[in-house]
TrEMBL record, chain A:
<dbReference type="InterPro" id="IPR003759">
    <property type="entry name" value="Cbl-bd_cap"/>
</dbReference>
<dbReference type="Pfam" id="PF02310">
    <property type="entry name" value="B12-binding"/>
</dbReference>
<feature type="binding site">
    <location>
        <position position="272"/>
    </location>
    <ligand>
        <name>Zn(2+)</name>
    </ligand>
</feature>
<keyword id="KW-0949">S-adenosyl-L-methionine</keyword>
<feature type="compositionally biased region" description="Basic and acidic residues">
    <location>
        <begin position="579"/>
        <end position="589"/>
    </location>
</feature>
<dbReference type="InterPro" id="IPR006158">
    <property type="entry name" value="Cobalamin-bd"/>
</dbReference>
<keyword id="KW-0486">Methionine biosynthesis</keyword>
<dbReference type="InterPro" id="IPR036589">
    <property type="entry name" value="HCY_dom_sf"/>
</dbReference>
<dbReference type="InterPro" id="IPR036724">
    <property type="entry name" value="Cobalamin-bd_sf"/>
</dbReference>
<keyword id="KW-0170">Cobalt</keyword>
<feature type="binding site">
    <location>
        <position position="206"/>
    </location>
    <ligand>
        <name>Zn(2+)</name>
    </ligand>
</feature>
<keyword id="KW-0479">Metal-binding</keyword>
<comment type="similarity">
    <text>Belongs to the vitamin-B12 dependent methionine synthase family.</text>
</comment>
<dbReference type="Pfam" id="PF00809">
    <property type="entry name" value="Pterin_bind"/>
</dbReference>
<feature type="region of interest" description="Disordered">
    <location>
        <begin position="579"/>
        <end position="621"/>
    </location>
</feature>
<dbReference type="InterPro" id="IPR050554">
    <property type="entry name" value="Met_Synthase/Corrinoid"/>
</dbReference>
<dbReference type="InterPro" id="IPR000489">
    <property type="entry name" value="Pterin-binding_dom"/>
</dbReference>
Length: 829, 223
């Protein structure tokens, strides 16, 4: 019988620890336990039998750490034979015992996935598939994915299990005492991800004992709609003479687990330190307890690696800025793959209170799938806000959903048969909350009743794919009120009726409403409030617009959704204080002017050129722009840059003020009077000012002279990129185009890039002694393939002498030295 | 300055200031970074005691073997060792990654603050183990990490395996053998029956005498 059917009828018991049992039988420290499947098969089978006799329904094959990273090709035992033997031993034991199921066991790969580590998501997925394929061939009854501390790796494992098998998937994660997974996930993020991916049973294992895990399991029960399982350790570990021992005996374990059964956990077992005796007691104690039914939750939730956002409670803000429509600067950034610009847009929306970020990179002539995946990958490395993948390109949608680390929002599907057939299978496979536009083959319905009919049709079709109503967000469609005077009312009616009549949740792209009208913010904020009042679940807006933020914050206060008005006060308390302080200052200034006999009225007119006390410092001839760059003041530099453009063109400002300021700071750094943080703060201020210049030059159709291209890379095997990134910031400020190949870059890629762009200067960085050979190899290859290229190297372990010995053209002891080298070399050609 | 466990003098030493006092803006930036760092840092540490044996000049520390002469010297006279691993977790790496892309000055200061913090975490734990062992009449040698002297990084795999550091702390190795999360430390601490003064500590044990970040004698260490 399929274990999923059995689970509907009765409680299922898992086995306990395997590693400690093997150690008792002579497994040596450092020896891979899975090797015993071939070297000591009887011992492994005997352990399975002991568990089955003690009352376990499922025995977990000894394949936890079996993967291609630990069992490499041509090194000792083959991975396939280890996995096959592991599953076969479990199956033999089940046959001999006359009852039970054999589970293929998947643990962590032992490697950390990018962006924090160096393992690519698809490589992790591939590694798991290899194990699953062998396990399925050997006849496993189910797949257990356990002890996962990283949600991204967990996703790779579940996808692999689903893509190459149809076996039931039981997935459990490990938490620390704070309730956090190793890479920041929580009970809620894990539940969202796993339910989205279609796991059959989810829960927790390892890490802690049953007492410590109980509150987390209760939390999981309160958010999850799936059967739950828990395999705790035998309490907490301590070290005794170099051996790990646990603090709960079998009886205590069984007692503590009773509370798990009573709070609704259907599958019970043990992990580290638990023995057949623990399982026997567990079954004795919890076997007779009634199985509580699984409770379906009407929870609409999206997640990132470390955060969930619930839709349907407090209205949710989806930041709309990352969308090139009507934004020439973003269009340019997307064409140039200028990720820094996009990441900054994300950061500022996060600061302004966005809960989710919309990501739309659709531009004619670009490879949308490639740009979308790159953007999602980059965004999820700098923000933990969940993302809304916004595209009509199905390929881009699928690839982005695949590499997304969590349960995404997907924008969008609609009532057209063809679109539903393309989008719903993706939502079914990868999980997600999908935005459903109330339109179909007949166009956009003009009445709310007909929009509801389309919504109903979408719900029904989704259900046929196994997608529940809670995972659909109906877009009531917001049309320009300037072209249809009843448009806004129809939209609002739809929002209200979807909620009241269909029990559904809604979303709106709010700012469409004011298209074609002046001062759009007036209409937008008024309509936004009306929509919120009609029960809107989520709004796609620009949270940085003061009127929208004010409407939203006020709504929350007035609806009792802002406890103690703290959110409102946090946002506006300081603003009011600042305004008062400014008024006071004006009054004082006016009073002072009166005292001095001038004609002040109490109000000063315009700010004009600032004459702050800072102007008195240093060289009196120094311009505000130069000064703010030297001091590393970003906002001041931006303001000064705008002011400077009033009286000079961009290139003049750059050459007369900005470059001299950077030079001065650079010289100070070389002389030891300016330190690295100051050098970089200046560089950031300059970069901000360059941003203003760039805007102006794009408008005027002028370009800053490109001083030449420089390739930068951290060599293969090294993942430290801070030094390389410092060099990059400075080189860009000096007008070089930097081709940043990233970290851990193989020699062939660096050489190929140098050849393709006929690049004159290559900068290589290595921080570790162990990676200097890779640098040497890269230089050798560059000399062969790109003999024209000048190579500069840097990094903590390098010296002038070392750099010479591996054949570099220059050793750059710091970032300024790299700039000087690049400047000098480019001048020569 | 020490309440939050980050020695400001160490942060600025890592930033290349030596003994010089930073300007006000950098000082403020450092304070902001430390605050943000402490919000995401999730310190995890584990330690196990192993017997240590020497055979033909090769050391067996229970979970790894090495023929490192510097470690042999450091552990002279010790029959047992503590093997430890500590990390600040992946949250700190995410922060470094984020500012590496958004705001380099902050990334650099954050990096220095994180380096100071992980050292502090190790020192704090060392101190409590030192007291614990002294009560038993045993004395701890200064901690000695792979990478010091000729103690090779190649022991990391076995050392971390012996501590189950992957599962318990989330410390993994990259293909090139580097620890991830990046702000992680492993070390060996000799347990000696005699109270002895051992001069060589981490930084001072290093052969790279011209390093600009080298701790000068009598500086930085607040004991």
């Amino acid at each position: 019988m399929d274990i999923r059917d059995e689970l509907k009828r009765r409680r299922i018991f898992f086995d306990g620890g395997m590693g400690s049992m093997l150690q008792e039988r002579g497994l040596l420290p450092g020896e891979l336990p899975e090797t015993w499947n071939l070297s000591h098969p009887e011992a492994v089978k005997e352990i399975h039998l002991e568990y089955l006799r003690a009352g376990a329904d499922v025995v977990t094959a000894n394949t936890f750490g079996a993967n291609g990273f630990k069992y490499k090709k041509d090194e000792g035992y083959s991975l396939g034979s280890i996995v096959t033997a592991g599953v076969s031993l479990a199956k033999e034991a089940v046959k001999e015992a006359g009852h039970g199921y054999a589970a293929l066991d998947l643990g962590p790969t032992g490697r950390l996935l990018a962006p924090c580590g160096d393992l690519d998501f698809e490589d992790a997925c591939k590694a798991y598939k290899e194990v699953v394929e062998a396990g399925v061939r050997a006849g496993a009854d189910l797949i257990v994915i356990e002890t996962m501390g990283d949600s991204y790796e967990l996703k790779a494992a579940v996808l692999a299990a689903k893509e190459v098998s149809s076996l039931p998937v039981f997935a459990t994660v490990t938490l620390d005492e704070r309730g956090k997974m190793l890479t920041g996930g929580t009970v809620e993020t894990a539940a969202a991800l796993l339910e989205g991916l279609g796991a059959d049973v989810i829960g927790l294992n390892c890490g802690l004992g049953p007492v410590q895990l109980l509150p987390f399991m209760k939390h999981l029960r309160s958010v999850s709609s799936l059967p739950l399982m828990v395999n705790p350790n035998a309490g907490l570990p301590r070290s005794e003479n170099g051996r790990t021992v646990y603090d709960i005996d079998a009886r205590g374990f069984a007692q503590a687990m009773k509370a798990m059964a009573e709070c609704g956990v259907s599958v019970l077992g043990g992990c580290c330190g638990t023995t057949p005796e623990h399982i026997r007691r567990l079954r004795e104690t919890c076997g007779p307890l009634p199985l509580l039914p699984v409770e379906k939750k009407d929870r609409t939730v999206v997640s990132s690696y470390g955060r969930t956002v619930i839709l349907g409670e407090r209205p949710v803000i989806i930041g709309e800025r990352i969308n090139p429509t009507g934004k020439p600067r973003l269009k340019q950034a997307l064409k140039d793959r200028d990720m820094a610009y996009i990441l900054n847009m994300a950061a500022s929306q996060e600061e302004n209170g966005a809960d989710i970020l919309d990501v739309n990179v659709g531009l004619p002539g670009i490879d949308e799938a490639a740009v979308m995946t790159e953007t999602v990958r980059e965004l999820q490395s700098v923000t933990d806000l969940p993302l809304q993948i916004d595209t009509s390109d199905v390929k881009a949608m699928e690839q982005a959903m695949r590499i997304y680390n969590g349960k995404p929002m997907v924008n969008s599907v609609n009532g057209k048969k063809e679109v539903m057939e393309a989008v719903f299978p993706l939502v079914r496979k990868y999980g997600g909350v999908v935005v459903a536009l109330c339109l179909d083959e007949n166009g956009i319905p003009e009445t709310a009743a007909r929009r509801l009919a389309v919504a109903k049709k979408i719900y029904e079709t989704a259900a046929s794919y196994g997608i529940e109503k809670k995972d659909i967000l109906v877009d009531a469609l917001c049309m320009a009120v300037s072209s249809d005077k009843n448009g806004a009312m129809t939209t609002l009616e739809t929002v209200k009726r979807v909620r009241e009549e269909l029990g559904g949740k809604t979303v709106l792209g709010v700012s469409n409403i004011s298209f074609g009208l002046p001062m759009r913010e007036h209409i937008n904020s008024a309509f936004f409030l009306l929509a919120l009042e009609n029960g809107l679940s989520a709004a796609i807006i620009n949270p940085g617009l003061p009127a929208m933020a004010a409407a939203y914050k006020s709504f929350l206060v007035l609806h009792g959704m802002d406890e103690n008005c703290s959110g409102y006060v946090e946002k506006y308390g300081q603003e009011e204080a600042a305004r008062k302080a400014e008024q006071e200052a004006r009054k004082e200034a006016a009073a002072g002017m009166r005292k001095n006999g001038s004609q002040g009225t109490g109000e000063t007119e315009g700010s004009g050129v600032p004459h702050g006390p800072a102007a008195l410092e240093g060289d009196p001839a120094e311009t505000p722009l130069k000064r703010s760059i030297k001091k590393g003041m970003i906002q001041a530099a931006e303001t000064a840059a705008r002011n400077a453009l009033l009286s000079a063109d961009a290139l003049t400002v750059i050459n007369r003020e900005m470059i001299p300021a950077l030079d001065e700071v650079g010289k100070g750094f070389e002389a030891g009077t300016v330190f690295l943080p100051q050098l970089l703060m200046s560089a950031e201020a300059a970069r901000a000012a360059f941003g203003i210049m760039k805007e102006k030059m794009t408008k005027d159709g002028v370009e800053r002279e490109n001083r030449g291209t420089v390739i930068l890379a951290t060599v293969k095997g090294d993942i430290h990129d801070i030094g390389k990134n410092i060099v990059k910031v400075l080189l860009e400020n000096y007008g070089f185009q930097v081709m940043d190949l990233g970290r851990d870059v193989p020699p062939e890629i660096i050489a190929a890039a140098a050849v393709e762009g006929h690049v004159p200067v290559v900068g290589l960085s290595a921080l570790m002694t162990t990676t200097v050979p890779a640098m040497e190899e890269t230089i050798r290859l560059l000399r062969e393939k790109a003999p024209w290229a000048k190579i500069m190297v840097g990094g903590a372990v390098l010296t002038e002498e070392y750099a010479n010995s591996i054949g570099a053209d220059a050793y750059c002891k710091d970032a300024m030295a790299s700039v000087n080298f690049a400047v000098k070399y480019v001048k020569k050609i | 300055m020490m309440e939050d466990g980050v020695r400001r003098s160490e942060v600025f030493r890592y930033l290349g200031y030596g003994n010089r006092v930073p300007d006000e803006e950098t000082g403020e930036l450092a304070e902001e970074c430390i605050k943000e760092l402490l919000r995401v840092s999730e310190e995890r540490i584990c330690v196990r005691e192993f017997p240590v044996t020497v055979r033909d000049g090769s050391l067996d520390c229970g979970c790894f073997q090495t023929s490192s002469r510097s470690l042999l010297k450091n552990l002279g006279g010790c029959a047992r060792v503590l093997v430890m691993a500590a990390t600040l977790g992946t949250g700190v790496d995410r922060l470094l990654l984020k500012y590496g892309k958004l705001f380099m000055a902050r990334a650099v200061v954050m990096q220095a603050a994180a380096a100071a913090l992980i050292e502090e975490v190790c020192d704090r734990n060392f101190e409590s183990w030192r007291k614990e062992y002294e009560e038993k009449g045993l004395y701890l040698r200064p901690r000695f990490s792979p990478g010091y002297g000729d103690f090779p990084l190649s022991v990391q795999k076995d050392l971390l395996g012996g501590l189950e550091a992957g599962k318990r702390l989330g410390i993994t190795l990259t293909e090139g053998g580097l620890m991830m999360p990046s702000k992680s430390v492993t070390a060996v601490i000799g347990i000696s029956p005699v109270k002895g003064f051992c001069r060589t500590e981490g930084c001072e044990a290093c052969e790279k005498k011209d390093c600009p970040y080298r701790r000068s004698l009598g500086q930085g260490r607040e004991t």
